[in-house]
Amino acid sequence: MAVKGIRELAHYLDISIGTVSRALNGKKDVNGETRRRVLEAAERLGYVANQSGRALRKGSTGVIGFMMQTGHEITGQGDTFFMSVFDGVQTVFARHGLDLVALLCSSEEDPDAYLERVVARGFADGIMLSATRRIDKRFALLERRKIPFISLGRSLTDVGQPFIDLDFEGMAETVMTRLALRGHRRIAILRPHDDLNFANVFLQRCREVLAEHGLVLEDDLIFKASPNEAEGYRVGRELAALPDRPSAIVVLNDGSVAGVFQGLDAAGLTPGKDISVIGLHSPQARYLSPRLTCFDLSLRDLGIALAETLLASMPSYAALYPNAAHRKLWPMIFIDGDSG
User: Fold this and answer.
1) If residue 307 lies in a helix (H) or strand (E), which one and from where to where?
2) Helix (H) or strand (E) run with residue 166 in it
């Protein structure tokens, strides 16, 4: 059985149309059991709200935008990270008849100007931000315009918004302690080429942990690269050519790890034997030899948490997600491979 409108859904549940409408819209005057029955029936029977009518009545669109940067240097290899996150996000939004729309900002365009243009069109009820920078003007823009948003990542620009960020401090502590205890004294890092905040967070914690072991992170061993295989290959070759080669490298770009392996191999070096390599897991990593020592996480679960946390900050849905964390560092799982 499938229902085409709210009247049929109300008839099926033997509940008034008004109660069904209030339950679907997260109104507080509907008790929890009734809300649960309505939402479960709506999902089971394939009910979809008439979004054009709802937008006119409520001044809402039923659309949530996810802003991300594009460009051959960034996504030319195919971005499985965001596809998996999107799957989790839409799993949650589907419960409420909401739609996720990817806001694709070209790497050649200023992201602040892009978001300003998107906001001016007013087609989204909420925004998800990625690629957060150390100083990020987008936060202040959305706060000023009173648009609910969540950031995948943190920034020194803080307006009290909800966020979920990967636990790069925890990653730094784990990897630097491991390398220091194994006798490594000169450690290289491959980081993104731009001012993404997570790289700064990671580097700061690396310096603190190394200092506890009487070591320093040398500035000339911090390589910057776009997150793709070609850039990883370039860094691998540069690393191999150094007269005083470091004994380990940590790769923050998941798209660059395979290229680093290839660059080292072209120079006659074997990861895990001649130089330790630790990185972030990616679909390509499973085919690397030796097995990559890396950090992994469930991207779909991350997407679910992002969606639920955003909805918890929106009045129409907040009552449905009373236990959603306002801010969270998302743990990453350490996988002990053979490369580091």
Assistant:
1) helix 299-312
2) strand 163-166
Reduced to 3 states (helix: H, G, I; strand: E, B; else coil), residue 328 is strand
Give per-residue pLDDT as tens, 229-246.
999 999 999 999 999 999
- pLDDT tens per residue across span 103-117: 999 888 899 999 999
Asked if 279 and 292 touch (Cβ cutoff 8 Å), the reply is yes
Pick the CATH number of 168-297 from 1.10.260.40, 1.10.1040.10, 3.40.50.2300, 3.40.50.150: 3.40.50.2300
Q: Which contacts of 216-223 are long-range, i.e. CB under 8 A and separated by 24 or more positions? A: 217/187, 217/189, 218/186, 221/186, 221/187, 221/188, 221/189, 221/246, 222/188, 222/189, 222/191, 223/188, 223/189, 223/190, 223/191
Per-residue 3-state assignment (H helix, E strand, C coil) for 205-268:
HHHHHHHHCCCCCCHHHEEEECCCHHHHHHHHHHHHHCCCCCCEEEECCHHHHHHHHHHHHHCC
Which residue in the block uniquely carries the two structure tokens 């993104």? 192
Question: How far apart (Å, rounded) are the C-alpha atoms in residues 311 and 294?
Answer: 32
Amino acid at 229: E
Fold assignment, 6-48: 434 Repressor (Amino-terminal Domain) (1.10.260)
Give the bridge partners for 149, in sequence order. Answer: 127
- C-alpha 256/C-alpha 263 separation (Å) is 11
Q: State the residue for tokens 């636990």.
A: 167
